[in-house]
């Protein structure tokens, strides 16, 4: 069974995180909600509190097929300040595992240099942090190598369905989209 780690830092964008985990689980993909900050309960940008499955200190890239970083503020800045997360990003990339980031979260992988010479998108105003990337605002979701980027809350469903496609195939993604009336 495919397994995804979705990271929650205080101030995460709820639509992006919860839409993604919901869609992935509907596709029968196992998802662990991973909390940063030492507490399993994490409050989103709009004060919706979510109970994570595990703490970031308790996992590694091993055993996962993909990591997902939802955006939001200050959630993205909290992701960006985590050295543990950055080590895990490096681990995922070294094994060519998928790394998804939506909204402002591409800033984290962009500042680390992972988007250099790749096409990427993000929330408007964050593109200056996608160091060396070919920024595009004409696509809601972009896959370039093992990196998947998306624009923001309104593109969360397209982002989640693309993740399903990458992990379980186009047919599964299209069937799920039809069932969800997308």
Gist?
The chain is an alpha/beta fold and 182 residues long.
Describe this structure as you would to a colleague:
Helices cover 33% and strands 23% of the residues. It has a single domain (3-174), classed as 3-Layer(aba) Sandwich (Rossmann fold), CATH 3.40.50. The protein contains six helices and eleven strands. The chain is of the alpha/beta class and 182 residues long. Helix 5 runs antiparallel to helix 6. The strands form three sheets. It has a seven-stranded mixed beta sheet, sandwiched between helices. Strands 3-4 form a two-stranded antiparallel ribbon.
Low-pLDDT windows of residues: none
Helix content: 25-40%
Q: In CATH terms, what is the fold-level topology?
A: Rossmann fold
What amount of the residues lies in strands?
A: 15-25%
Number of helical regions: 6
User: H/E series, N to C?
Assistant: EHEEEEEHHEHEEEEHH
- What is the C-alpha radius of gyration, as a whole number of Å? 15 Å
Provide mean pLDDT, rounded: 97
| Strand segment tally | 11
Cα end-to-end separation: 25 Å
Largest sheet: 7 strands, mixed
> How is the largest sheet built, in terms of strand order?
5-2-1-6-7-11-10
Just name the CATH architecture: 3-Layer(aba) Sandwich
Number of domains: 1
Under the CATH scheme, which class?
Alpha Beta
Inertia-based shape: globular
Secondary structural class: alpha/beta
CATH-defined superfamily: Class I glutamine amidotransferase (GATase) domain
Task: Give the SSE map.
Blueprint (H helix, E strand, L loop, with lengths): L2 E6 L5 H13 L3 E6 L5 E3 L5 E3 L2 E2 L10 E4 L5 H6 L2 H12 L3 E5 L3 H6 L7 E2 L13 E2 L5 E4 L2 E4 L5 H13 L1 H10 L3
């Amino acid at each position: 069974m495919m397994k995804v780690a979705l990271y929650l830092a205080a101030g995460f964008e709820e639509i992006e995180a919860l839409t993604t985990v919901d869609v992935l689980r509907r596709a029968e993909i196992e998802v662990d909600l991973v909390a940063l900050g030492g507490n399993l309960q994490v409050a989103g940008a709009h004060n919706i509190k979510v109970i994570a499955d595990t703490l970031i200190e308790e996992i590694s890239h091993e055993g996962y097929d993909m990591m997902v970083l939802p955006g939001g503020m200050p959630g993205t800045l909290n992701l960006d300040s985590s050295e543990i997360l950055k080590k895990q990003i490096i681990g995922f990339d070294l094994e060519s595992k998928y790394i998804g980031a939506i909204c402002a979260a591409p800033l984290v992988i962009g500042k680390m240099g992972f988007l250099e010479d790749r096409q990427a998108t993000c929330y408007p105003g964050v593109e200056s942090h996608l160091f060396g990337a070919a920024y595009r605002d004409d696509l809601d979701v972009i896959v370039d190598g093992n990196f998947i980027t998306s624009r923001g809350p309104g593109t969360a469903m397209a982002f989640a369905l693309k993740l399903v496609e990458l992990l379980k195939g186009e047919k599964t993604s299209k069937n799920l989209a039809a069932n969800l009336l997308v």
